[in-house]
Amino acid sequence: QDLDELTLQLQWVTQAQFAGYYAALANGYYEDEGLDVTILPGGPDIAPPQVLAGGGADVMLNWMPSALAARERGVPVVNIAQPFTSSGLMLTCWADTGIEGPQDFAGRTIGVWFFGNEYPFLSWMSQEGIPTEEGAEGGVTVLKQGFNVDPLLQRQADCISTMTYNEYNQVLASGVAEDELTTFLYEDQGVATLEDGIYTLEENLEDPEMVDKLARFVRASMRGWEWAVENPEEAAEIIIDYDETGAQTYDHQLAMMEEIAKLVDTSQGGALDEAAYQRTVDTLLAGGSDPVITAAPEGAWTAQVTDAAGEM
Amino acid sequence: MTDHPISAPGAGIGRSLRVGLLVRRMMGTAGPVLAVVAGLLAIWYLAAIPMNAAQSVTDAERAGAAFDVSAAERRDMGGLSLVALAPGTALAGAYGQERPRLPAPHQVAGEMWASTFALGADCGPAERERDRLELFGRTWAVHEDCLAPVTSRRSLILHAGLTLAPTLLGFAIGSLLGVALAVGIVHSRVMDLSVMPWAIASQTIPILAIAPMIIVVMNSVGIQGLLPKAIISAYLSFFPVVVGMAKGLRAPSAADLDLMRTWGASGARILWHLRLPASAPYLFASLKIGVAAALVGAIVAELPTGAVRGLGARLLAGSYYGQTIQIWSALFAAAIAAALLVAAIGGIERGVLGRMGLRR
Amino acid sequence: MILGVWAALWGANVWVAGRSFGRWLAPVLFGAALLILWEMTVRLFGVPQVILPAPTAIGAAISANVPTLWADFVQTFVKGALSGWAIGCAAALLTALVIDRSGFLRRGVLPVGNFLAALPIVGTAPIFVMWLGFGWESKAAVVVAMVFFPVLVNTVAGLADTQPMQRDLMATYGASPGQRLRYLAAPSALPFVFNGLKIATTLALIGAIVAEFFGSPTVGMGFRISTEVGRLNLPMVWAEIAVAALAGSAFYGIVALIEKRLCFWHPSQRGGRP
Amino acid sequence: MTTISATSLDLTFQTADGPVHALRGIDLTVEAGEFVSFIGPSGCGKTTFLRCVAALETPTAGELQVQGMTPDEARRARAYGYVFQAAGLYPWRTIGRNVTLPLEIMGYPKAERRERMERVLDLVELSGFANKYPWQLSGGMQQRASIARALSFDAGILLMDEPFGALDEIVRDRLNEELLALWARTGKTCLFVTHSIPEAVYLSTKIVVMSPRPGRIADVIDSPLPRERPLDIRDTPEFLAVAHRVREGLREGMEAA
Amino acid sequence: MTTISATSLDLTFQTADGPVHALRGIDLTVEAGEFVSFIGPSGCGKTTFLRCVAALETPTAGELQVQGMTPDEARRARAYGYVFQAAGLYPWRTIGRNVTLPLEIMGYPKAERRERMERVLDLVELSGFANKYPWQLSGGMQQRASIARALSFDAGILLMDEPFGALDEIVRDRLNEELLALWARTGKTCLFVTHSIPEAVYLSTKIVVMSPRPGRIADVIDSPLPRERPLDIRDTPEFLAVAHRVREGLREGMEAA
Ligand SMILES: Nc1ncnc2c1ncn2[C@@H]1O[C@H](COP(=O)(O)OP(=O)(O)OP(=O)(O)O)[C@@H](O)[C@H]1O
Ligand SMILES: Nc1ncnc2c1ncn2[C@@H]1O[C@H](COP(=O)(O)OP(=O)(O)OP(=O)(O)O)[C@@H](O)[C@H]1O
Ligand SMILES: Cc1ncc(C[n+]2csc(CCO)c2C)c(N)n1
Ligand SMILES: [Mg+2]
Ligand SMILES: [Mg+2]
User: What is this structure's pTM?
Assistant: First the structure.
């Protein structure tokens, strides 16, 4: 029969972070829902909200701070599902620098991802009252971190941003022992923000047919996540199969899949937890003199799609 | 044959002279190039010792060796002082690291070999491995994916080939555009005055900055795939062609142009019979620069398109995981591809100019 | 409608190009025409700002962010591009002088140089960032690597571009190698050297900006561009691009002006009379 | 029949350093079939006059008629063959295709191009070289090819600007003889610029001596020599007398300037 | 006193097409203060011989002595002034600074450079043009500047390779007169290559006629003309006789080859 076409823009390259979607694709869950899904990998020079605005994709994955900031910029993106309920973001420091808590950050060099991913860090620092501008008294020196853990390994930075499931494993894989490192999980610091959520443009939600399509997409994706969490080895293999760069290794993807499984909650069918949303907004608004968003967003999420997905 | 004694004066001069000339021409470039390459390799090997010293010492320490200087203090030491601190360790660890700051030439060569012929160190789950191979002091897994060399995802040839398509298309677009602009510039003073400064300005715009916008804009009008990448690569390659062609189309002397006018030739005839042939040497010189630029453009274009295949994607993938050896091998693969493209243009140039009688 | 405006502006340009002030007015008018068309396209078709902002929005972003733009300009252009350009060009000139003394080196270095010049910047930039850190030094190094070979190749070609007769004259004067360089090779190489220097100006700025995509402090034109793209602040991105184009063109123009002053004697600078 | 008639022709170039009077008050009539040489010191306007005739420059004043037309009409009627000092052959075309180039531009059919090419190459004794490239020929042969090119279409007027200036004396002697024979055979009207007094005297039925600043005509000498001229006519007293008059004309022109 | 003596000089160029015998068995003696012209068809080795004398080429066999030294020693002793066919001035230097260039290289003090420059520019009638650039001068003026440059330092031997080849007859006549006057005044030894028979006869005390393939000397003619030579000496029977002998020598050389 005729399949409905749908394009998904990831926010990073093909890896186990997105195992649920690849699993749904590989196992035919999307087809079962009458969907023909195209997955576009992301990369360092790709801003998913821009792709959405330009019509290059129907849905995207994005971190909520970045998505809310884009909304303020006039791109009406709306969260329609939130498979990731916990944050995997953390700051990883060399233990021998003597950093034990945020109070030790003054004068340190810290690597941060930018490109819309800097907001959690900035709001954390502003909550701690640590300036991040160049040369500020008692502040930190912020580096725009590249795409790997070299700044830490080369000791160009005292701390760098890592994800529990990816960069942290890379640091360990390069021979560093866990006790050589001190880590700060954003969850533990009370500044966690929602990560990989599914977003679409507001206008799509006005079209019942499209809403139905999105609901089928979310349902199939959550089915994919359920499967991937239960079958990490096979999921990692699927990732290897879909990675066309030939750069991913099975062991790394398996390790990533195991960490990712801890962040995903499949029990709610992908429905957004309003409390978690509110915590994210509060964290972003609390950004002192330079908050990430200036006002509490209106209509930035909807349960419409997940509700529809649940009813079917 | 003849019975002239071989020792007769002048005997054999003709042949030995010709052979001598041939040998001298070969030695003319091959010898010096080999010498320079050898020199560079020597410097490279030497430089790898201090460059990788920090990691060598850290590795040794993790393996149980003890050093007088603590890790925190070592952080501020340069590579040379680390070599002075532990010369034996630095030397022993310089050429065998997984993620060296400066991979040794043989590591890069090994990776290029392996990824050209598609061997992979751990390229899949253990149970899918068919065989293991000892090469370059490393164990390579021969994954079933990797058995058909060129079509494997690890094959540099595959990636280079995939980058080549937008390169060639972009190069074609860029060259045609460049030639067309040059023709306009030469024939119209308005074009000359208004286009040239903006062509220069266009080349000062960082392509990596506007590439994502080109992609998104083209995407929003429904153009995807090869063309956006080709456009970016054309953007980089048209400029040298414009400059070179404008010079070449103006190469005919005033006397040549006057002669055409005494024959009552039209502008188009002058272009076809005089300006274009006269510009051929300039065209080829700028095409050589343009094709290299087009390759760089195609590689750059792989970033904002989220390309998962191609040399640029391969470079980035290496970069995400700190795989320096992989970065270097992709880098050299790109340079080799550029050299081959330039050589191909050179071959066409020799043929065309030879047929035109412009090569003496 | 757009086509009509285009035709009108082109007509004005044709008129202007015929006048004596056309030399500078024509390109300005052409640029203005492009901007007007751009603005019209954006407004008429309602192009979203996150895809292509209008020139007026870009202008507003420029005037609202002068201090930021200036700080970025200093970091990227002055510290990164200019120092890298100067170091790279100086190194290339010195190397060319050394190479020129030996035909062996000349034949050996140039092919290898051409090969190394083809290394794409997206590959070299991360390596230099890894080696030299996140500051401007790594950007300067990327620029050095980019400009070195074009200048070297041009200079070597220039030093070799003396006429046999001029070389013979030097021989009959019994000139030393140093004198030969000073009185003959150096001046006649100058037009070639400037060719290389001009190419290098455009490469330098691009190199410094692109290298910042691969790691930088929180200031710089490349940093700003990549960050603001992520934040969808496109007018600011284009403001930086405008500064880059302006600075790059000015840089090119200055070098071209110096060339005009120093190479006034070369046929290309005085209208082709031999 | 008058082929070229110039009446008080003026041409002034406007340059950055002020006006240059390249031609001033030129009066000259050339009959059909004449061989007219122009001689004079550098800068006296010889080239400029030839270029006016070929409609490559426009006089600033005066009257210039070519075969009863304006020069530009004559140019479009393809009345001229022009030969420059340098052969100016295109290196990417063989000798044969160089010669057929003007024919191609003028739209002659292929068969006729070929036939004419063979005829004119024969005329300048270059048959057999049609498939060679210019740089495979000596300087003198190239110059002959360039003359053949100017002859290939039936221009009634042959304009030659120092065609033999770059050749050595021996080759030059031979080409002079050949040119004379050619002229006799074809009956074209020739305008010929040279710096060499013997050459001018040897070739011409009429010698125009010019003088510079401003460029004007100092003397017009009708040659008493017969049309039939072996090379050693140059040792006859008549020849030397004409040469002497040319030299005197030149000297006076120089002193007046 | 013998300035230059060549004994069975050979020079063979090894080229891709086989050896070229540019000079074969050249025997020649030039006394101090002589004016020797070399004439002969293209490719007969005139330039090559001059270059051997100036140590710009090395003979493959035979003996060549210059002022009792090897050519290379003489070169380093700055014994030569060399004038080429093209002026070969450096476009980035003014005429004045072109003339002082050899003096600068040879380490003359500044005041003397200036003084000598003025003197030689005066000699070639170019005073007042010291601050012009070469391309602002006519071809003839450029050639004179290049002669001035060769005269600026006290080289005993002046080597000139077709210095007037590109000039028109009138300028050439005047420069010939000037060159002769200069030679008389300075007493230099001059070796002069030309293609023009009258020029060779007019200037020289000795004319060397050469013939090609292999390049050798066909005839050496000692001129019977007096040292004092007004321009119209060219119409005297003695002059014509010498010119005739040169022409014959050339013709025979051509036929032998
Ligand atoms: N396009 C031009 N612009 C300005 N002045 C010019 C131009 N063409 C020629 N002249 C000047 O006009 C005068 C006559 O030049 P023309 O070329 O006709 O001289 P000529 O007699 O052919 O000299 P020659 O023997 O050197 O070829 C010269 O003073 C020259 O400088
Ligand atoms: N560097 C060289 N390599 C090979 N052959 C050469 C070289 N220089 C000169 N020849 C050859 O040597 C011969 C003599 O050349 P030379 O230049 O001395 O002739 P010439 O008498 O000066 O001729 P022209 O009157 O044309 O200047 C010619 O056949 C020439 O081709
Ligand atoms: C340019 C750019 N830089 C950083 C991130 C942040 N980020 C979000 S998910 C992810 C993968 C983690 O392994 C990373 C690095 C991004 N998206 N784009
Ligand atoms: Mg002229
Ligand atoms: Mg010669």
Answer: 0.83
